[in-house]
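Hey,
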Amino acid sequence: YILINLYFTATVANLVGRQQLAVASRFYSETAQTPDSDLPIDITNPFEKDPQQCILCKHNIAPHYKNVKLLSQFQSPYTGRIYGQHITGLCKRKQAEVEQAILRAQQCLLMPGYHKDLDFLQDPKLFDPERPVRPHKY
C-alpha cells in the first residue's frame, strides 16, 4: 500500500509539473510567434512639455468691465495705454476680451483713460512689462 501511494503521489506531481510546463511553453511560444513583437510600444513622451496657457485661461477667469482691479493690471501706469499681447502673454481671444472690457470700463468712467488709477499702483504684477514674453522685432 505504501508503494502504491508513493507511486500515485509521484505520478500526480509529475502530471501537475507537465501541465505547468505545457502552459509555460505555450505562453512563451505565443509571444515568440507574434509578428508584432519587435515593433515599438506606444508610450507617452516623458520629455514633452505641458501646453502653454495664458494666465486667464489657466485659472478660467473671464474679464469683465466691472472688475477694474484685474483690468488695471493690463494698463500702463504712466500712459494708461493697454499692453499688447506680446507683453501680457495672453492668448488672442483673452487679449481681445481684456481690451474690450478696458474700453467699456473707460466709457463707463470706472477706469481713467490717460493714467493708471492710484489705488492700483501697488498691486502685484501679473507680468513684467520690461521683459516681454515675446520681444519686439525692433
